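Quick one:
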Amino acid sequence: MSRQIRKKAERDRRRFIFFCILPAFLFLAVFMYYPIAETFRLSFMKSSGLGADRFIGWENYKKLFASEEFQQGLLHVFLWAFWSIIIQLPLAFFIAFSLTFYINRFTRPMRAIFYLANVLPSAITAMLGKFVFSPTNGILNSIGANAGWKWLEDIDFLGDVHIAFWSVFAVATWAYTGFPIIFLMSKIEQMPKDMKEAAEIDGVTGWKYAWYIVLPNLKGAFRILAVLCTIGSLKLFDLPYMMTTGGPGYATITLGISLYRQGFINWQYGRASAIGVVILILSLVFTVLEFAGHGGDEGGK
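Output:
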């Protein structure tokens, strides 16, 4: 084959690769990169959708960080992420290990049952949550009334500023733990069987096996779940909004709810965009920190 023919074949190959990746690149540019760039631009503008936008520099950010609503939203998403990692992940591991280690006719159906809440629409989950915690006809208050437990009957689970956050979080724990359970189960089942057999020979069984063998091999899986919990908390909107609309006061407000209020109720697109930028930057920072801190760890596999 002559040199010219080889060059032509190489040009054709590169042209073919270019046209293969072009649709994907255009899709990303139009539906991802442009909205992100536009969000950054709007965050420095005073924009209400009426009239021309006006550049105001960092003013939107200054007002946000001085706003109690934004401060409480920021605090709540951090708290939500922290308690999700502290409560939901250990609970998911406990259930995942139980369902994979103690397999019998009772535990097999439990896999589908635990994951069921994860596939329910958020509106259904919120409705079930209100069905449990409603102060007028909720299950818990009704139990208190029928049992004569005045202390339980009088609790306003969704209206008390000290309890509302935890009521919503309890519903979220039930709804969102399904995915970590399935994810950890898949990781546990992928572990080599000879590892389990060797542990049994050494007398390491049951929860000792979980603690000394399984957990160290799931570091990577927990790291991924921790990142997902953190990013999911930063973007949290649907469940708290449908259960309490962020109230009472700012008791269950999140950055997502604050963004919605600024953009679609107060018509402050610039300020809403600034919240979106904060969420994006925090998500990137936590993701990079989480993986950079474990750069050499290949534990989770």
